[in-house]
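stage 2 :: seqdesign
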């Protein structure tokens, strides 16, 4: 009887959108994988996946992709079911001796929901996934704007949600740079700061690295009026 080699599932970071920001290590894993599990928004009439777009842009065959739908809702229970299903499929593929990869935008270990898949793989299937590092979106923001996000001994605060204007004011008074992620979910804080702190250095970004959708402005009046999408970041500096 031949023994099947079990390859550990590989969690691959894709960077924020620009295929040039995929690492050589990530590219090699994608090329060598037999099947790549990739998050998507699957609707009756359309399928969108920024992750798929990056993967196809670097020449990976579409036939290797296995798109899975991730329900977008504050109630994470439906998404958890989707992650459990994907983890089960990865497990089955590993059992068959296939090389499996599953992907995340930006860096897979930085505020990425892909950790649910890694956790389920480990806890329910006894599989420990490896991770490759990637460029997080906020790092790509710095180069797009040509700014030093932090200089010398300056500290940095990164907030994914639920931060108060007072907390941000405190950070800025301590000369921290503030990175606000998921800006669309922090509208009240954003509007309060726009009112109270027009003196700050404002850098607002959308869809960094995504061809045709990337946007950057320092204009506070535009930021105040703008319909903020999910893929947006605000960087505030006190200078
Ligand atoms: N793992 C990702 C973060 C995912 S959390 C990383 O390493 O960057 C999702 C949040 O990340 C979004 O709400 C947005 O604030 C930010 N984000 C991710 N990709 C982005 C992009 N291309 N442009 C702007 N913001 C992005």
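stage 2 :: out
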């Amino acid at each position: 009887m031949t023994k099947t080699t079990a390859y550990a599932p590989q969690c691959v970071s894709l960077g924020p959108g620009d295929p040039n920001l995929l690492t050589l290590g990530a590219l090699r894993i994608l090329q060598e994988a037999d099947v790549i599990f990739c998050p998507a928004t699957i609707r009756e009439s359309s399928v969108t996946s920024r992750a798929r777009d990056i993967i196809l842009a670097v020449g990976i065959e579409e036939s290797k992709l296995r798109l899975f739908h991730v329900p977008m809702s504050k109630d994470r229970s439906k998404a958890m079911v989707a992650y459990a299903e994907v983890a089960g499929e990865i497990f089955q593929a590993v059992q068959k001796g296939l090389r499996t990869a599953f992907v995340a935008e930006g860096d897979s270990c930085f505020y990425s929901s892909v950790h649910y898949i890694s956790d389920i793989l480990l806890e329910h299937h006894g599989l420990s996934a490896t991770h490759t590092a990637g460029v997080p979106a906020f790092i790509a923001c710095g180069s797009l704007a040509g700014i030093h996000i932090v200089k010398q001994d300056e500290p940095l605060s990164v907030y994914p949600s639920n931060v108060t204007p007072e907390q941000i004011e405190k950070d800025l008074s301590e000369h921290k740079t503030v990175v606000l992620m998921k800006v669309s979910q922090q509208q009240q804080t954003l509007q309060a700061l726009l009112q109270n702190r027009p003196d700050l250095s404002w850098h607002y970004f959308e869809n960094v690295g995504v061809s045709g959708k990337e946007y950057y402005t320092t204009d506070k009046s535009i930021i105040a009026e703008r319909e903020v999408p999910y893929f947006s970041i605000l960087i505030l500096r006190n200078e």
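stage 3 :: structure notes
- The chain has a mean pLDDT of 95.
- The pocket of S-adenosyl-L-homocysteine is lined by residues 16-17, 104-107, 110-112, 136-137, 181-182, 205-210, 230-233 (CB under 6 Å).
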